[in-house]
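Class prep. Sample record?

___
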Amino acid sequence: MIDVLITYFLVYAVIGYVIEVIYCSLGERKLVNRGFLHGPWLPIYGIGALLVIVGTTPVATKIAAVFVVTVILTSAVEYIGSWALETFFGVKLWDYSTYPLNIKGRVCAKNSTLFGLLGVALVFGIHPIVHRTVYAMGEAARSNIAHAVILLLAVDTTASVMRLVTFTALLARYQKRKGEVEVRLHTLAESVQNRLLAQRLGQEIEELHNELVDRARRLYAKFPSLTSSDEGRKSHLAGVRRAIKNRIKEKREHDSK
């Protein structure tokens, strides 16, 4: 049974990734590679799908009930996921603050409604096909897939978490050092020696900022609304976003020449 659930998880994590890529790419009018992890899967969809499959079992014959239960379950998963990322890493990978009927920017009525519709499609259309396909694989194949999924996700999750930890640590270091340098610059007297020191301090902050921009590019490509609830970090991240856009613009202008 565990092997079956893990195989379901993989299938729906991949399907979720494809849906997100198509949905976001259509909105941006360019290919957008979504997801916190490196691989072509979104675990939050795998978890959400399993919850929907299990949670809607008592009402699996009633479309309206499946829709409502799906909205509740998937919204809870999205809210908890956003809360956990913000609590442990200090950043918000998605932010629905500008959407109507949102809750702390973590969930919104539009996305919850879409998830509800996907839940109906899952229960009445997609899962019966997936169920038959998974059981047709045979026990040995399911066991091999389950072990491979556990290994790949463990490696991918570890690498992705370390990437985010490194980024948030660099963001915190930049924020702290920028504040220290700004205070120090205010206290420097106008002399040649102090002007040279001010120049070196400015270069140090610029180098830190450039490193932050380099590390942020992939995250912003996947999560364009990446921000933070901390006002200082939020401001720095907005500056990083502008720097990334400027780099892209400069590159396009250079390539067009």
Observations:
- The mean pLDDT is 86.
- The chain has two domains: 2-154, 156-256.
- The longest helix spans residues 139-187.
- The CA atoms of residues 185 and 198 lie 6 Å apart.
